[in-house]
Every structure is written in structure tokens, then in C-alpha cells.
Design a protein that fits this description.
InterPro entries: Nucleotide-bd_a/b_plait_sf, RBD_domain_sf, RNA_proc/Spliceosome_comp, RRM_dom, RRM_Ist3-like. This is RNA-binding motif protein, X-linked 2. Pfam families: RRM_1. By secondary structure, the protein is of the alpha+beta class. The chain has a domain of 112 residues: RRM (RNA recognition motif) domain (Alpha-Beta Plaits), CATH 3.30.70. It is built from five helices and six strands; from the N terminus they run αβαββαβββαα. A four-stranded antiparallel sheet has the order 2-3-1-6. Strands 4-5 form a two-stranded antiparallel ribbon. The longest helix has 32 residues. It starts with a helix and ends with a helix.
Length: 187
């Protein structure tokens, strides 16, 4: 099927879903996969550019920008994995069909994606680790997650602002009184 037809079909699905007010979504069949297919990418985009665009909907833990084996240039499509599957729904609904550098993106769920088994002899240690583990930070199981407490705002700051405002208004009144007396004397 033509890529533009796919984009239009996904947009129609979303519109129908909004109009019907049903409790289930067409996205539900992809609830077990956090992978997305990205098609129609401009050839000069890098992994970093793609992460910048798509990270507005969640933490990206893995990316595979498919490149030509001989030249190393992008082939115009990629696969990304979000840390949270709910981010895929946001990305599909909001980024499918947008234009980047004159090209229309196709963003769709990817139900059964497997990370490619690249020739690991040509890959450095860091790249091999990222391909195997992803790039999201992980905590050891023994280390509990501790919530960060919000720091209360400094009350002294508000008081300083209030005093400054009072000084300003006094100065304004004083200057207004002077200009009134000066104006009446000249007439």
C-alpha cells in the first residue's frame, strides 16, 4: 500500500475513534509493544535529530535508523522504542502525517519488532551495549526508587518583592505630588 494511503488511513482511524466515543481503541492491539515504525524520514536526519523530535512524547530507549551498508547513508526509515508503551499512542496520534524538511512522516505501531543481529565484530563496545541493553538508565534491583520532595519556595523572597513594590509605589506617589505642585505653579 502507498505510504501516503497508510498515513491517511491511520488519521481516519483516529478521527472515527474520537467521533464514536468508544472505550476501546485501535491502539489496544499494540499494547504489548513500545516500538514504532518511522517512514518517510528525510535522508539527512541523524539518530539525534529523530530523538529530539520524538522524545517530546516520552523517553526513547532504543533507536535503529536503517542505513545503507555500503555508504552508511540513511534509507529514510527507522524504528524507535519508548520506555513506556503509552508514549507510542501519543506519537502515532500527533506525529503521523506531519512534514519535516518537506517530507511527510509515517508513524505507526510496530507489533513484532526484533532488534537486528548486526555483525558485532565491527561494532565498538558502547554501541554493542546500547544495542543489547537500550539507552535508558536502569537502577539495580537492590536500590529503591526514592521520590524527590519538592523544595518549598523561599518565603523571604516574597517579602522582599512586597517591600520593593511598596517602595516603588511610595516613590511614584512622591513624584506625582511633585509634578502636580510644579504644574500648578507654572500656570
Amino acid at each position: 500500500m502507498n505510504p501516503m494511503t497508510n498515513v491517511k488511513n491511520v488519521l481516519k482511524l483516529s478521527e472515527r475513534e474520537l467521533a464514536s466515543n468508544s472505550k476501546s481503541s485501535w491502539h489496544d492491539q499494540y499494547k504489548d509493544s513500545a516500538w514504532l515504525f518511522l517512514g518517510g524520514l528525510p535522508y539527512d536526519l541523524t539518530e539525534g535529530d529523530i530523538i529530539c523530535v520524538f522524545s517530546q512524547y516520552g523517553e526513547i530507549v532504543n533507536i535503529n535508523l536503517v542505513r545503507d551498508k555500503e555508504t552508511g547513508k540513511s534509507r529514510g526509515f527507522a524504528f524507535i522504542c519508548y520506555e513506556d508503551q503509552r508514549s507510542t499512542i501519543l506519537a502515532v496520534d500527533n506525529l503521523n502525517g506531519i512534514k519535516i524538511l518537506g517530507r511527510t512522516l509515517r508513524v505507526d505501531h510496530c507489533e513484532q519488532y526484533r532488534v537486528p543481529n548486526a555483525d558485532m565484530s565491527k561494532v565498538d563496545e558502547l554501541t554493542a551495549f546500547v544495542r543489547a541493553e537500550g539507552c535508558a538508565p536502569t537502577l539495580p534491583a537492590s536500590q529503591p526508587v526514592v521520590p524527590v520532595e519538592l523544595v518549598p519556595k523561599d518565603k523571604g523572597h516574597k517579602e522582599k518583592k512586597k517591600k520593593h513594590k511598596e517602595k516603588k509605589s511610595k516613590k511614584k506617589k512622591k513624584n506625582k505630588g511633585k509634578s502636580d505642585s510644579d504644574g500648578s505653579a507654572s500656570n
